[in-house]
C-alpha cells in the first residue's frame, strides 16, 4: 500500500489557505533555506527529538533502546544517529514526553481517515486540507494520491510548495489541487542558490506552466530582512505577479519561533542574529504590491 512519511498533522490551521484547515506536513525537502521555520521536516527520514526542558534524567529511554544508541551525558540525553534505528522504543517509555518521534509512515487511507475527522470545520468555514512540508512534491506519488482521495470526498485541497520538482510530478498533483500556495524566495538565480541551496530556474518555469494551465495560485513571499526584502526586489516580484496575472500575494514575515527547534534537533542555526521585520516595514512592502494592482496581504 502507498505510504507517505508524515511529520505532523496540524488541526485548526488558519494560515495555510482559506477557511479553517488541517495541514499535513510531509517530511523531506530538496531545499535548505537558511531561515527554514520547519527544520523538523527537512530530513527525509524519521528523527528522534529530545527536549531538555522536559527531561527528568531517569534513563528509562537508555534502557529501552535495543540498539544502545542513547546515553546520558552531562548535557543530557545524547542520541547517536549512526546507531539509532528510529524505532520509537525510547519515545514509548519516556514518562515526561521529552522524546518525540518526528515522522511516521501512514497510508493514504489512514491519513484520509484522520483528516475526515475535521470535515465539519471545513464545511462551516469553506476550509479544507493543505499539504505542506518539507516539500510535498518530494513525495509526489503519495501527495497526488492523497489529494485525489480528498477531492473524492468533496474536501478543498491546497498544496504549499516551493515548486522545485520535475514538471511531471507537479502536473500530477495539479490535476487534484484547488489552490497552490507557491513560495517565491528570490528572483535572482544566484542569490536564490546561496539562500536555499538551489537556483530558481525550475521554480519559475513551473510557475509559468501552472499559470498557463489555469491553476489557482497564491504567491507567498517570505520576508527575510537583509536577504530578500529590498524594495527593488519586491517591486520586481510585483511586476512578475502582474505579468502572470496572479493577483493574490502574501508576505510572510520572518520570526524567531523556529530557533529553538534547531537546538532540540542538534542543528546549528545559521542566522542567530537576524531580526524580525518591523510592522512598518511589512506595511510598506504590502503597499508597494497594492500600488501595482495586486491583492496583497500580510500573513496567510
Structural write-up:
The chain is of the alpha/beta class and 300 residues long. It has 2 domains: 3-42 and 108-298, Alpha-Beta Barrel (TIM Barrel), CATH 3.20.20; 47-102, 2-Layer Sandwich (Alpha-Beta Plaits). Helix content is 34%, strand content 23%. It has helices at 60-64, 89-93, 108-116, 119-125, 140-152, 167-174, 189-196, 201-212, 231-244, 259-265, 279-291, and strands spanning 3-13, 21-26, 47-50, 70-73, 76-79, 99-102, 104-107, 128-132, 156-161, 179-183, 217-223, 248-253, 295-298. The strands form 3 sheets. It has a 9-stranded mixed sheet. Helix 5 runs parallel beside helix 6 and helix 6 (167-174) packs parallel to helix 8. The radius of gyration is 20 Å and the shape is globular. The protein starts with a strand and ends with a strand.
Q: List low-confidence stretches.
A: none
Order of strands, main sheet, comes to 7-1-2-8-9-10-11-12-13
CATH fold descriptor of the largest domain: TIM Barrel
Level of helix content?
A: 25-40%
Largest sheet: 9 strands, mixed
From the coordinates shown, what is the CATH architecture of the largest domain? Alpha-Beta Barrel
Identify the overall geometry. Answer: globular
Amino- and carboxy-terminal Cα gap: 34 Å
User: What is the name of the CATH class of the largest domain?
Assistant: Alpha Beta
Total tally of structural domains? 2
Strand content: 15-25%
Query: What is the number of strand segments?
Result: 13
Amino acid at each position: 500500500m502507498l505510504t507517505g512519511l508524515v511529520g505532523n498533522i496540524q488541526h485548526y490551521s488558519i494560515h495555510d489557505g482559506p477557511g479553517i484547515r488541517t495541514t499535513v506536513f510531509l517530511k523531506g525537502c530538496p531545499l535548505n533555506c537558511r531561515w527554514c521555520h520547519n527544520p523538523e521536516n527537512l530530513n527525509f527520514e524519521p528523527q528522534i527529538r529530545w527536549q531538555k526542558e522536559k527531561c527528568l534524567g531517569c534513563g528509562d529511554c537508555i534502557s529501552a533502546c535495543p540498539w544502545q544508541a542513547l546515553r546520558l551525558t552531562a548535557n543530557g540525553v545524547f542520541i547517536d544517529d549512526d546507531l539509532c534505528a528510529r524505532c520509537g522504543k525510547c519515545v514509548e517509555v519516556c514518562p515526561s514526553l521529552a522524546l518525540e518521534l518526528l515522522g511516521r509512515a501512514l497510508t493514504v487511507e489512514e491519513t484520509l481517515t484522520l483528516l475526515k475527522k475535521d470535515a465539519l470545520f471545513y464545511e462551516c468555514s469553506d476550509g479544507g486540507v493543505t499539504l505542506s512540508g518539507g516539500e510535498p512534491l518530494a513525495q509526489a506519488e503519495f501527495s497526488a494520491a492523497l489529494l485525489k482521495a480528498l477531492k473524492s470526498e468533496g474536501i478543498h485541497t491546497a498544496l504549499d510548495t516551493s515548486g522545485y520538482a520535475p514538471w511531471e510530478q507537479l502536473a500530477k498533483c495539479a490535476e487534484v489541487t484547488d489552490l497552490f500556495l507557491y513560495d517565491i524566495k528570490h528572483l535572482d538565480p544566484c542569490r536564490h542558490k546561496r539562500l536555499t541551496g538551489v537556483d530558481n530556474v525550475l521554480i519559475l518555469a513551473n510557475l509559468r506552466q501552472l499559470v498557463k494551465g489555469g491553476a489557482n495560485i497564491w504567491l507567498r513571499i517570505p520576508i527575510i530582512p537583509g536577504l530578500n526584502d529590498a524594495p527593488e526586489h519586491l517591486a520586481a516580484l510585483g511586476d512578475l505577479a502582474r505579468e502572470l496575472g496572479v493577483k493574490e500575494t502574501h508576505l510572510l514575515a520572518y520570526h524567531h519561533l523556529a530557533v529553538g527547534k534547531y537546538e532540540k534537533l542538534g542543528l546549528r542555526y545559521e542566522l542567530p542574529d537576524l531580526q524580525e521585520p518591523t510592522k512598518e516595514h511589512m506595511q510598506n512592502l504590502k503597499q508597494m504590491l497594492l500600488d501595482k494592482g495586486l491583492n496583497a496581504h500580510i500573513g496567510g
